[in-house]
Design brief:
It comes from Kozakia baliensis. This is Endoribonuclease L-PSP/chorismate mutase-like domain-containing protein. It holds the Pfam family YjgF_endoribonc. By secondary structure, the chain is of the alpha+beta class. It has a single domain, classed as 60s Ribosomal Protein L30, Chain: A, CATH 3.30.1330. The protein has three helices and seven strands. Helix 2 packs parallel to helix 3. The protein is globular, with a radius of gyration of 15 Å.
């Protein structure tokens, strides 16, 4: 397997979308030293939500997992926009997942694996990360999933 994250994405048949502009008073990514924090990203595909609704309701766990993967692609688009090259990622430190769900839904971890599995596929062992996944009553625009991230990056490409 290639060591370059861009090559790994290509081998998976995936391309990064254009980084979405913030929709409120925040910035999409903040770098401080070798740390890059990426704000929560929704499962936008071609500028539209992949799905709307709640897990345990209209959204299946499988579709939720696909949404989590789409969220991570949007996270990576923000990384690319912020630092110019995914090869500068030394480590995916942490992912945070928010799952809009019914009170009875309990498959949060399986849904968030859509993002976590992709992080490992793209970055190899450097993609293994700490993670929190929580269920919430709603998310912006009725999105079913939102993912935020923390990366360690190298100083220069």
């Amino acid at each position: 397997m290639s060591e370059n994250p861009n090559d790994r994405l290509k081998a998976l048949g995936l391309t990064l979308p254009k980084a979405a502009a913030p929709v409120a008073t925040y910035v999409a990514a903040v770098q401080t030293g070798s740390t890059l924090v990426v704000s929560g990203q929704l499962p936008l595909v071609d500028g539209k939500l992949k799905a709307t609704g709640k897990l345990g309701g209209a959204i299946s766990a499988d579709l939720g997992k696909e949404c989590a993967q789409a969220c991570l692609l949007n996270v990576l688009a923000q990384v690319q926009a912020a630092i110019g090259d995914l090869s500068r990622v030394k480590r995916v430190v942490r992912l945070g997942g928010f799952i809009a769900c019914t009170p009875e839904f309990t498959q949060h971890a399986a849904v968030m694996n859509g993002a976590s599995d992709l992080a490992v596929e793209v970055f190899g062992d450097a993609g293994r990360h700490a993670r929190s996944t929580i269920g919430v009553p709603s998310l912006p625009l009725d999105a079913p999933v939102e993912v935020e991230a923390l990366f360690e990056i190298s100083e220069n490409a």
